[in-house]
Amino acid sequence: MTTILNPNKSLSVNPLKMSQPLGAALAFLGLRKMMPLFHGSQGCTAFAKVVLVRHFRESIPLSTTAMTEVSTILGGEDNVEQAILTILEKYQPQIIGLLTTGLTETRGDDMKRILKTFRDKHPELDSFPVVSVSTPDYKGSLQDGYTAAVESIVAADYGNVPDDEPPTVGMKPQVTVLCASHLSPGDVEELKTVIEGFGISPIMVPDLSRSLDGHLEDDYHTVTTGGTSLTQLKQLNRSCLTLAIGESMRKAATILQERFGTKYKVFPRLAGLDAVDSFLWELSQILTSRCDHHFPIVPNVPAHLQRQRRQLQDVILDTHFYFGGKKVALALEPDLLYQTAWLLTEMGANIQAAVTTTKSPILEDLPIDSVTIGDLEDLEELAVGSDLIITNSHGTSLAKRLKAPLYRMGYPIFDQLGLGQRCLVGYRGTMKFLFDVGNILLEEEAKHSPVALH
Amino acid sequence: MKLTKSKINDLLTQPGCEHNHNKEGQGKNKSCTQTANPGSAQGGCAFDGASIALVPITDAAHLVHGPIGCSGNSWNSRGSLSSGPMTYKMGFTTDLSENDIIFGGEKKLYKAIAQLIKKYNPAAVFVYSTCVTALIGDDLDAVCKAATNKYETPIIPVHSPGFVGSKNLGNRLGGEALLDHVVGTKEPEYTTAYDINLIGEYNVAGEMWGVLPLFKKAGIRVLAKITGDARYEEVCSAHRAKLNVMICSKALINMASAMKERYNIPYIEESFYGVQDMNRCLRNIAQFFGDQVLIERVEEIIEEETAKLDIALAPYRERLKGKRMVLYTGGVKSWSIVSAAQDLGMEVVATSTKKSTEEDKGRIKKLLGKDGIMLEKGSPEELLRVVQKTKADLLVAGGRNQYTALKAKIPFLDINQERHHPYAGYIGLVEMARELSEAVYSPIWTQVRKPSPWEIWQQEHESLLNLEAEGE
After folding, report:
1. pTM of the predicted model as reported, rounded to 2 decimal places
2. Given this chain, do its domains A20-155 and A310-453 carry the same CATH topology?
3. Which residue would you say has higher pLDDT here, B388 or B298?
4. Which residues of A touch B94 (CB under 8 A)?
5. B72 and A66: CB-CB below 8 Å?
6. I need a labelling partner for A366 at 20 to 30 A (CA). Which of A306, B45, B271, B305 fits?
């Protein structure tokens, strides 16, 4: 069992952690025609926007209740009301994600009451969904905010599609897939394709693959153009199973179970041969379990995935030379840390150091003796002598100081292209990771080889 | 400095800022004191503005006293460059937790300062208050004072809670911190007859480095840069300059006017963008000192530089001649870039006046002529409408509008904080010309605008398909 060290320093140096509101906004951006609304001062929104714009290189719809000194003293009720009405008029979203910040949480705005008053005052907006979530900056991190937003999204009542209306997805079995914050738009896209390959219809919650993947639309939009649609949210009750990808999605899965009786399975990671194997096996069982026992059908894993599996096995063979015995230092959010640390360990690498942002039960099960909840200063101390460092773009200068190569993961990555589509899960994504990292390690080995290569 | 309402009002109604006059030059225009509109407000807060103004002091540590959102989401995101120390690039924060908020954050702040000084030994520490620490009433001044006495390092409180106002107000709050705690605390090693301060130039993308050699050549000494690539000590001795040269609008006008009052240093407002403006800047400074030798030397430099520039720009002038630009940016750049573009033979068909002063607007009017459009408001939709209406060839704006343009398949050039290449000075103009030309003439535009073969087929056969459908 891994020991969790929480030094709780007075001074955080080069923070790894980003704030809950930013994470919640990211989750909200995975809903279609969405406008996330920060209840706080302007800067909270502006900073989050800059981070997301630089990371994804996309325009990012975010808005603010623009709290001032006066409204901070008197309470933000009017600001919330005015903001919602202005957004509805100006941007015509189909859904608003309302999140709090350090400022409004500290002053103690009662969001339930504020929203209730708003509802009473505006009966004409009865059916308009406002999903509200509490995300104070002074607790947790991006992953926690993201997780809290997903929980609010699945807990909200959007009204159901009437039972007699046939499902829009045909007669295929439907599953709900809860996607944690370690999944990029490219990861979500890959997952969706894999699941559809089994003849199953997935509802991805949230679905970043169509909102932050980077694509051109015919005209200009001020809200998200893709993501989980309201119609899909209304049909969550029809899913036969919830697949929670990432340990942090467990509670959201239990919410769905309580609401609709939907059973769930948690997959803490989806990279690495074993992890992907068991995920695909689970998918193959969904159809099988619906068959008559007397006439069982053979679990049918699509041919292209079977082929990818053989490719991955070959990639593992080819790349393992460069991973074996290498010391890797990681500073990532818990879910991503878990997935990456285990994949590296399975390749023969040693995790020299692990730093993360926030508490999570998954941290107890890492392939290293202790994990530090800390910042990049901690990483810099722990990573001395590492062969590779894996963290976000803020790690650039520390990697230089430690003379170790950096592989960028997490948020924010502002000095690299293509993050909207980068996929690091499934067989395909695992191969991509092994090639990327393998090439870095290979190059390092060549650099430090005592015999000059000719 | 305690943050009182009257102090903030003072900053918002600086007499030197024409924002505060109506068209007749008297009375008050409300634009600075207007509060942000919930739901439609965009842009940064006062904390954001204060850090923009102060973080470029490179050998100082910048410690954010607040929860993680303020520092965690913002550190390491500005392109202000340093020629030496890198302390300013580190993210320092007290990262307040719920407990700190309940029991107060002063002790944690004091400990954080102590650790910071011990481990990183900065020239000074700027401590920024944020919404939350202002709200729980942490006494920033007292903690900073106590720590200054104990550790013999200047520790400067910056009262910048986000909720007091906009980024612009934040710039001025940063300036106030410098006025109250930094400027005048140290004497320069030596002075010259031609000492100036540059105020409001942050060395984004190294822009200042394109201009400093010109001053040096002319024999004008830049005593303090406030604050691009500055060292803490030079700002301390800024009070011995003979002239303040304000760059980039009126963001730090409170510094210029207070230094005039306290140290009798006059100020002028100049721009480094475009040949005309760069020439004027050098000439105005020389004129101010009134030294004939200096004036002549400046004329020589101008002649030499413009001759070099004409050769360097010739190919670009040819390519850019008559190209139409929509400009959307704030303050001084709303007219200085116009003049830079016109130097290149381009036509500016519209520009923003949202953050411009009355004086700025006058200049814009003169530069644009009667057909030029002045944009008071600039929603993305409005910008696209204007681009379409004017048949503009490109949009030049800040990073926030980058995707407005790109998604609409319009060539774009980033003119603000986040850009990576310097446009200031004579050298900068060549860079800007090169990038404008790259933007307009990139081979990608035909590709991204091109419909797919099947869409073309569909269009061509539309009538045929319609007929068929009717026939059925």
Report:
1. 0.93
2. yes
3. B298
4. 10-12
5. no
6. A306
Minimal Cβ distance to A84: which of B39, B108, B131: B39
The closest alpha carbon to A238, from A174, A286, A178, A152, belongs to A174
Pairing of strands A370-373, A388-391: unpaired
Can you give the pLDDT of all 454 residues of chain A as single tens digits?
A: 999 999 889 999 999 999 999 999 999 999 999 999 999 999 999 999 999 999 999 989 999 999 999 999 899 999 999 999 999 999 999 999 999 999 999 999 999 999 999 999 999 999 999 999 999 999 999 999 999 999 999 999 998 777 666 655 557 899 999 999 999 999 999 999 999 999 999 999 999 999 999 998 888 888 999 999 999 999 999 999 999 999 999 999 999 999 999 999 999 999 999 999 999 999 999 877 766 667 666 778 999 999 999 999 999 999 999 999 999 999 999 999 999 999 999 999 999 999 999 999 999 999 999 999 999 999 999 999 999 999 999 999 999 999 999 999 999 999 999 999 999 999 999 999 999 999 999 999 888 877 655 5
Report which of B427, B433, B419 is spatially closest to residue B203, judged by C-alpha positions: B419
Distance from C-alpha of A98 to C-alpha of B330, rounded to nearest angstrom: 30
The highest-level CATH class for domain A174-307 is alpha beta
Contact indicator for A47, B70 with CB cutoff of 8 Å:
yes
Angle between helices B253-263 and B167-181 (to 10 degrees): 30
- Choose, out of B52, B131, B383, the residue to mutate when testing the contact with A (most A CBs < 10 Å): B131
**A327 inside 8 A of chain B by CB:** no
Element (H, E) at B238: none
For residue A63, list chain B residues with Cβ-Cβ distance below 8 A: 39-40
Chain A residues touching B76 at Cβ < 8 A: 14, 394
Q: Spell out the domains of chain B, with CATH numbers in brackets.
A: 42-181 (3.40.50.1980), 195-307 (3.40.50.12380), 311-448 (3.40.50.12380)
Interchain contact, A63 vs B40, CB within 8 Å: yes
Closest Cα in chain A, distance from residue B115 (Å): 7
In this complex, do B166 and A87 lie within 8 Å of one another by their Cβ atoms? no
**Amino acid (1-letter code) at residue A258:** E
Domain ranges (residues) in chain A: 20-155, 174-307, 310-453
The Cα–Cα gap between A218 and A243 comes to 34
Nearest-angstrom CA–CA distance, B256 and B11: 12
Q: Which of A264, A439, A269, A245 is nearest to A341 (CA)?
A: A269
A348 close to B (CB below 8 A): no
Domain A310-453 classified CATH 3.40.50.300?
A: no
Dist CA A85 CA B208 (whole Å): 45
Domain covering A20-155 in this structure, CATH number: 3.40.50.1980
Q: Minimal Cα–Cα distance from B405 to chain A, Å?
A: 10
ipTM of the complex: 0.93
Model confidence over B303-318: pLDDT tens digits?
999 999 999 999 999 9
Closest-CA distance, B77 to chain A, in angstroms, reads 8
A-B CB pairs within 8 A amount to 216
